[in-house]
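Board work, copied verbatim: DUF11 domain-containing protein
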Amino acid sequence: MKRLIKKSLYKIFVSLFVIFYSFLPQTIVIGQVIDEYSQDNVAPIEEEIIPEESLPQEEVVLPEEETPPVVEEPLVEKPVVNEVVFEEPVIEKPTVEPVEVIKEVMSLPATWVLNGDSATTYDVVKLGKTYIAPQNSRVRVIFTKLPENPTKLTIEEITLTQEEIEATGAVSDMAYDIKTDMIDGTFEYDLVLPSIEEETKVVYAEERKDILTDIKEVTNEIVNEKDILKIEDIDHFTIFIVTGIWPTTSNNSIVDGEGSSQIRWPSGSSTQSGLGFVGKSGLILADLINGQEFILGDLTHYNHPVYSSIVWADLKITLGSPLSKDFTFKVQIDETTNTNNVRNCNSGFQRTDTPCDDKVTFPNSISDQIVTIGGVEYTLIIDGFKRTVEGNTIASFITEEYKDNTASLVGHFVPIGRIIVDKVTDPAGDTQLFTFTTGGEGYKGFTLKDSDTPNSQVLPAGKTYSVNETIPAGWHQTSAICTSSITGENETITALELDAGETITCTFTNTKKTDISITKTDSPDPVNNGGTLTYTLTVNNLSTIPAVNVIVKDTLPTGFSISSVTPSVGNCLDKIASDIQCELGTLAGNTSATVTIVGTVSTTSATISNSATVSTDTPETLTTNNNDSEDTTVNQKGHIIVQKITVPAGDQTVFTTKLTDINGIVIATGTISDSTDYIYDIDAGTYKIIEDVPSGWGATSNPCLNGVTVAAGETKTCIIENKRLPILTIEKVIVGDFVPFSNFSFKVDGVNPTAFESDGNNNIYVVPGQAYAITEVDPGSNYSVSYSSGCLGNLTYEQTATCTITNTKLGSISGTKWEDMNGDGNKDDQDLPILGWVINLDKDADGSIDQTTTTDNNGVYTFSNLLPGTFKVIENTPSSSWNVSFPSAGVNYYTGIILTAGANLTGYDFGNYENGQIKGYKWEDVDGDG
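↓ predict structure ↓
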């Protein structure tokens, strides 16, 4: 369509009252509408018939005398007597109908069947003919494209309501309803309407009710020619027919009518149940792709008592031209056993009083077929059933026995996307079948093997789906990666957010598992203590799948000292603690490798046990054969068992013991902790057990310190007791300052100054039973020092104590003394400081003077190095000739001064003024000369 670009002062209002089965337009309302300009510019259009002399001269052929049959159409409420009239001749006007469009101009008068205000063509319409409304010759329709089976045209003159006139601004209440019941095809036509010679604008509404709310503009090119306007090439709707057949059922052998629109069962029975489908005619394609549900047709369940039945039937729904597309759905019939009493109906869905109701459903309501409309792919979804057109859509159609039950079948089109799942196996081409589970409405589960075509399913867009696989025994999922055809979209198998037109491809890669095992042998067994022992580890690949990155680990037993380790393939790392690790690389299927470990046995145990494990990066079907152990009997020597007892019990401090000969030469060492043993394997002889005592501990008992004699094969026990030394915690507290604790130091018994830790807490061991004294290194004159009782004491084993050293930051109180020259209680520029004035300090305001000071040259006094407390500052008044003016008249003190730690308080000033004198001399003026 072309939009008229010239500005229009006037516009013609066209409203299309669309109903479901007809093409554009069904109703055209014509009236003059003024734009936002003043109505003074409006020239109303009068509905008058064009005078015959105004038409071009042309031969007019009158209709024959015979009157065609009258056809009644109840288009108005009041009864009207029908009559057949002959319209004025339909004439060709080249200025109105272009020659290239009109193939044949009607030369005979068009015959109309009149029914009140309505007129219907007697014959079906033809391509290229001009149909002139008998009510107004300026209303004309010319069809330029028709379907295979065109029908008649009806034009009805109607009247707009006052509300419609006011809503649209129309200045005329006359309108015309132009409609046809043609179906199954695409239509194009030219439309001629009354107009004035001014340029016009055309708008429309698709239903009459939309005149008040949804006015739209016609964008086709509009041609104005004197008193008419012409809109060319209107192609608004495409409509078609829905049909449906039943191609197959769950038991075709008992069904009549497969492949038709109605099936019955059981075959040959006088009483039959069945299913039927009658499709809807005249569906408008433009109405179907807006996501709204529409009625596909009527589904009937012929529900009657039968001796055998089916449980499902396929319904193939065909949408006619222009779609010509089949959509097949499975219809499920839940048949119930009939009884004589409705109370015996136990299906759970009984809704009528007739025993017993059946149920019809669509278990798979989403089609896997697609149709492309306007470049967008759609699929059809069955929403359910409607018992009435205005009723709610229901998922299940409950049908009454002994009755033919009919409901409308409802569906809607949705844009679709695709989810493609591919299977890749290692080794490639393996025939293992994998089962996939899916999530999301309509997404069906499936199976795949490596050689299969990827599973591709068409699904409604705008929804989230998921897919995963059940991993068979002997397989491992290597990866599951999903990619989108839309750049920037990130998809995972648990959240596939499918957009319209999107294709999501998920590739599941699985690796077949291998199976490796390990066996261990020892030689000789038994072995003499101190002798050589050889372990042989054999790794076998029991499968055909190569095992990648095969690693053998052997945890060597205590008392076994390794001499060498030799692999048949790969390499072995050095011994790590008591572990050996050998990397054998890739072990091919049905092959083996060995690791040989040689070492010396030195243990007090009668048996030593050695364990080894094997692993691979390739997933395995079985892992219980990935480890093996071997026990070896050891012929023992003599033993010294060293046991540890700690006080307090249970302490896990590690103690180092040494086995020496009688001369103190170290033979072996060992470590033990409380309640554990260490065993020395020895030849017959005399030995000593000595111990390195850790810090914080004291040795209180060691019976083997001076020697113990052990015979061959004999076992002796040495119990060594250790007690924990007393612990003194030295705690630093600083009041009124925020300096680091490490700025302060302390001494133990007056020696060895030690700085405090950063947290202010130091732990030291003191000698059991010996007095100690903790003092602080002088912190400076700015701090006071106090000690808790724990700073002096005497501790025994296991005891603890805390010494708290507190430093309080000292503060000060100061002020200024001045002479208040004018005695006004204010320090003025002429007021001068007073030197040497005595100021007193009373701590706790108890009436006793604790400190005294005097003012300096600037009149300033200061009380320094004060601990926190409450103070009173008092000035001395040297004589009665001085008076106090500040802090207030007659008050020579400040009381209630609260000093916190480290605070320096100032501003405690005093002002005084001295009483003045007036002096004179009295004499006798003897000579009176003054």
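The radius of gyration is 57 Å.
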